[in-house]
Amino acid sequence: MKQYYKLLLLVGLLVSGASCKKYLDVTPDNTGTLEYAFRNRNEAENYLFTCYATLQQFYDPTSNIGFTTSSEIIYPNNLTNHPLNENGFSLIRGTQNSASPGVNWWDGENGGQALFRSIRRCNIMLENIDKPIDLSPAEKARWIAEVKFLKAYYHYYLCRLYGPVPLVKTNIDITASTEEVRVKRSPVDSVFNYCVQLLDEAIPDLPPVITNQAKELGRITQLTALSIKAEMLATQASPLFNGNPDYASMKNKDGQPLFSSTADPQKWKRAADACKAAIDACEANGLKLYTFVAPPTVGSLSDQLRNELTIQNAVTEKWDVNPELIWALNPTFPCQGYATPRLTPKSAVNIFSNPSTFAVPISTQELFYTVNGVPLTEDKDYDYANRFALKTAGDADKYYIAQGYTTINEHYGRESRFYANIAFDGSIWYGNGIYNQDQAYHVEARGSGSLAGPKDLNTLNITGYWPKKLANYLSVYDDGFQPIEFHLPLMRLAGLYLLYAESLNEANGPTADVYNYIDKVRARAGLKGVLESWSTYSKTPGKPTTKEGLRDIIHRERRIELCFEAQSGWDLRRWKEIQNVLSVPLQGWNIYESEAGNYYRPHTVLTPVFGLKNYFWPIKDNDLIVNNNLVQTTYW
């Protein structure tokens, strides 16, 4: 029985994670011994790519709770077909439990991957890296650095989900005693510090950028590691982990506290320093904010559409020519068909080519600023009370809303990021095979008789809003769907700029540098600086001059700039703000109504369920039985 428990515990570190495509999909076939796996350089390289294998699974947004639980997108739960893993989208409906946790990255179940197995692979690689005699010292150093990054990132990902997690610095030997196998949680600061230590060890031996993109694009670089180090330290400094009173009583069974009892403001200083180091390295290697350059197939463009394409293509541009992209994964974004409405008569016939089921609630579109660069509720020139009143588009609106089309006031006079991110009834959809701006398609979404309207329970958008940003403007949905693939960023320069602004504001309060890095991102979106916008247009002109007011602005800037990029769900958690966001019903329009006056009536489509316990994942009940040194997450 003793040996049985030991084997069960080891299985917890060995649950499988699937590999991906191209060279990172290589797994040694019929590998019987470690000696064979590391007998020469080629076999060892194959094993290196198995260490990458689980990382490549992070490309799927349906298993990323930063995407599925942010409330940016609602996925319907009453479809008759189930083409996606719905576990992640169901979590905001209150489905999480400790018997069989959804999106379980501890055991590798219900949409999650087994990260402890991935960590074990990394340890095996580090323990055997000296065996291949034909491996050059330079290549050996690089591979060690890559594996240390992966090991750090897997621990970090677990920590974001579970808080305190066991640190697997070395693999547990199969001959270990039962008690040695029964690992316990490590305090959150120990986990973060270990992850940062691994990155610090890795960074000097990583290449700054990938020069051989045909063979190595997707492998870890110095810029990746520096940027993720900055994100780790900002996460550690954030209220969820830094002196969180809600988890002050969480301890191991031996009484060891797992959360710090008081907040340490110096953590923000370390995060700010790391952000600046990453920014300096990125800019020194030629990275900059993306600006759209029209290819020969595109005709003349208005300033409005050019701005829109700049924002959209900052995400969907090809990886190898996007100067803003710091890090992405090899597999391409798999869900363009869920973000694209039907725009043509042929697409309405071929409804099964694209489900179009990623629905954006009204609350997400209301995040975006007015054209004056301030929130709808704060703009003294904006008639918020009459935002749902009907209005017909004129010539001045034609590059955002179809001329002569009736929609609501709220869709007019918005910042360019609103039009680049979200498609709505009457909105212009530039691209889809038409590159004359005066002949561009527009969305028709009112009622079942409209092109984009509901046809059945499997190809409908339940709110009347689509995440346009997640579709490449060159993709064509007509007689079938021909997508132009892209890699969803895990880190891009605009996000790093805003992370630096956030960390610097938390460390020092408002300073010129804080405003500078926010304003870089705003200027790219065609907006004036924070101070100018608030002093000129806001009902609260002094808001950006205080640390608290600027914090609110920065948080909103990140949610706007990184909308639909699987970032907001993580940010809202680390800020301890997601409980407020998910405390109100999520609404859309009456999609079955064909008349504008009836269509544009807010309608609740989902009432989220989120309590204090949902900030961190439960450990599966059976794991606690197998390992009685583990303590359950507080509140579960």
Q: What's the structural blueprint in terms of helices and strands?
A:
Elements: H1 2-11, H2 34-37, H3 41-56, H4 65-68, H5 87-90, H6 115-128, H7 137-162, H8 178-181, H9 188-202, H10 213-216, H11 222-237, H12 266-284, H13 303-316, E1 325-327, H14 336-339, H15 345-349, H16 362-365, E2 390-392, E3 406-408, H17 416-421, E4 422-424, E5 428-429, E6 441-442, E7 465-467, E8 476-478, E9 480-482, E10 491-492, H18 493-508, H19 512-524, H20 530-537, H21 547-561, H22 568-574, H23 578-581, E11 586-588, H24 596-599, E12 603-606, H25 621-626
Antiparallel strand pairs: 1-10, 2-3, 4-7, 5-6, 8-9, 11-12
Helix pairs in contact: 3-6, 3-7, 6-7, 7-9, 7-11, 9-11, 11-12, 11-18, 12-18, 18-19, 18-21
Description:
The chain has 636 residues and is mostly helical. The protein is 38% helix and 5% strand. The protein has 25 helices and twelve strands. The strands form six sheets. Strands 1-10 form a two-stranded antiparallel ribbon. Helix 7 (137-162) runs antiparallel to helix 9 and helix 11 runs parallel beside helix 18. The longest helix has 26 residues, at 137-162. The two termini are 29 Å apart. This is RagB/SusD family nutrient uptake outer membrane protein. InterPro entries: SusD-like_N, SusD_RagB_dom, TPR-like_helical_dom_sf.
